[in-house]
Records
---
Amino acid sequence: IEDVVLYDLSMSFIGLGETGEVVLGARNDSRVDFVAPLRHDTNVTFQRKLELGSPNALPIQNAVQGTKGSGISIDYRGEEIIAVWRYLPSLKWGMVVKIDTNEVFAPLYKLKILTGLFVTLMLAGIIFALMLITPAGSAPIAQLIHNIKEITKGNLDISHENADRVDEIGNLFKVFDQMVRKLKKDQKEYLIRSEKYQLENRLKVGQTDLYKVMRGEQDLETLSQKVMDYLAEFMKVQVGEIYLLESQFLIRVAGYALKAEKSRPYKLKIGEGLIGQVALEKKSLLFNQLPDGH
């Protein structure tokens, strides 16, 4: 009965707007099988499959692996979404309820713009009445109308020379400037938040892919080198090393693009050199500028 109810739920979009949906998936070895139709692709039941570790559809990947959570992520279409996910142990399914961030945030952003434009246009109406008495005010009003049209197109990089005036038109442009600065601030905060979530999603993908690299029975040398190669590619590093702690010594077990230097030690004491110091302090050290030869 439960799976029938969930199946029907996945086909109901009440309260989910134009883009929201319920996604159901089951883990099948190293992939996810979608077990119910998708709103944006209704003919994929048990046909659409997703490899664990793929950059898209992270919520359903997390859900089928037994975790629950919420946040901004990327769905199976590659679209940014707000999602809540959980694991259903009785069915061994994962469930995701999601909606596109564009749909969620657009009304708020549009409301701010429309509110500001409404106030500006109302003031413009007052100034327009004054313009009939003072024809010299027609040029600034024409510029203001032009700027308003630019904002409705999404262009916030507009400028004018009338804010320094000490009359009603100058006051109107000051209010307009305040609105534009507020919109720019909101836009910047949204971009920062979006970049943050994209970075978090990339790290989640990296963790999943690293787990796949480490799976299976492998000897220490092979495993270490595979991990080193993956990290070098994922982090876009030019040189890398992995050391293993044995007793009070650090033994180099893998390297990436290392120079063949006979004098280079493969074994270090705790506290010896930068690597030994990192092991001693148990925290990261970051150097942006290094001398030649490093």
---
Amino acid sequence: LTGNSAGTSIGAFIGIMNAVVVPVININNNTLAGDSTATVTGLHYSIYNYGGSTTANINSNSIGTSVLPAIKFTAANAASQLFIYNYKGATTCALSINNNTFYNVLYAIATTASNTYIQNSYATKSQAINGNTFTNMNVTTTGSIRFISNNVAVSATGTQNVNSNSISGTFAKAGGGAVTLFTSTTASLAGSIINNSNNNFSNITLTGTTVMNGWVNTDAGNSTKTIQNNIFSKWTMGTGAATALNVNISGTNNSTTGNTISNISGGGSITGITTAAGNDKIYSNTIDTLISTGTT
């Protein structure tokens, strides 16, 4: 889907939308690139799944290409944009958002718009968000950026796997707002299994007062949780604070281990790993070369 455009009065510009309840929905192997819109308040969804399926696959899509942006905003659009959005599914649903590739989002005029590249908002039985790649992005909004959002409670028999997602090349953003690599903050139930492993978010440049929230898994439920072998490296900050990894859990079956946090510099405070009250087991991580030039 390329070369489509929308005018100033459009409310929502949606590339692919499903609102039908079917047993299995597959939204796979699509390219959505080179579209444009002149709206200042309208929303853009590259892929929007609203159906209550028992299996939902949103895999191997290209949101933009190496030569065409995912979308070009030709006016000062200030809306909160969602690029792959799973809004609904059956409570028994196996959700897969895997191996999608994201390229640049182009703002022709300065804006405060926020971007979320992957968001799941429904407590499906399982969530697999793996192998997604964010490629050479330079986003000129001063608004906030979230790469992956999965703020849902995992059921007692459910699983959450968010593994092997990465930046390919570099990521840069204009000054202002905050950047969150991943967020999961809702308390999951005892018996659930959560894995956040082998993600690599490196080669990031943030300017001005932009804050880096980092990888946030403060789901403080009683899950079996493993946060392992992730890499957060080569970040250049402006004056905003940076945190690489923010974890918290109330259950005892957890480990935050084998993560590498290195070569982060900037003018604000820099924190490798932070945690709140709980039973976190944080061990055998490598944290080195965190350099702040700030005075406070």
---
Amino acid sequence: FFQAEDGIRDVAVTGVQTCALPISVVFVGQENFVRDAKAGEIEALLALGLAAKNPRFRSMAWEADTVYEQWRDLNFGAWKAQLETAGASVVLAQFGQMEALDGVVRLPEFKAAYHRLLDQFAARTRRVVLVSPMPFEQPLASHAPDLTQRNGDVAAYANAVREIAKQRGAVFVDLFAPIALRKSATRLTEDGIHLTADGLRDVASLISRDLLSANVAPSAEHEALRAAIVQKNQLWFDCWRPANWSFVYGDRVNQMFGKSGGTEPSLKGAFERDRKSTRLNSSHGYISYAVFCLKK
């Protein structure tokens, strides 16, 4: 999958084949992909396995995203624009676990919604990896519902994702079967849903093994890379999801906080100035630094 002309929009989409660029992988999904961006586990393994191709990774995963809706602030930008700005050549997506709580009755709606979302991705690239939902784990809290009773539904949704991948010529990564069959007593989640540090590590290993057809052995190089990735992803997060977005581009630009005052520009003016700057001592230094680093 990663052996073709990486970094190029599909010839079928553009009609033109240009010179090869480094792989640019964008992660799309729910809370566990957000957690992985903060841990750097999947990215570190893929970066080492694809080192010869000089890969680049950006996480666009968002808490509470589903195939039905990915809520964003006003003027945040549609998927096509977001993926083009990130230079995406591959989208690695995971959905289905939370949607499975609706039961198999919504499977047709799930598949239709997933196809619509993938159509939006296809405006940028048709090269997609679809990761299956993983099964729920028995929660530790005695008062918490036992979601393992819903794993039959999760299996049905995992099979639906497999079917979608086959229909679209996408790569499918199965997490459901290997996790359901694992014998280890080590827990993967803290509450039956959200991955722990051990869970993130194990899931990253499963995904990378499937995509690279090989294991990447842990090493000092791996840990150093992972630590750097965690820092990079924080910079990317601060740049891509600034906390004050609604005061800059959204529906609160006319509020006092967003307006200029005295010799100081409006928040939008400061934000735009800093996005174009590589200086580290601007009024929003974390944003400038993020842009500076991500351009390198």
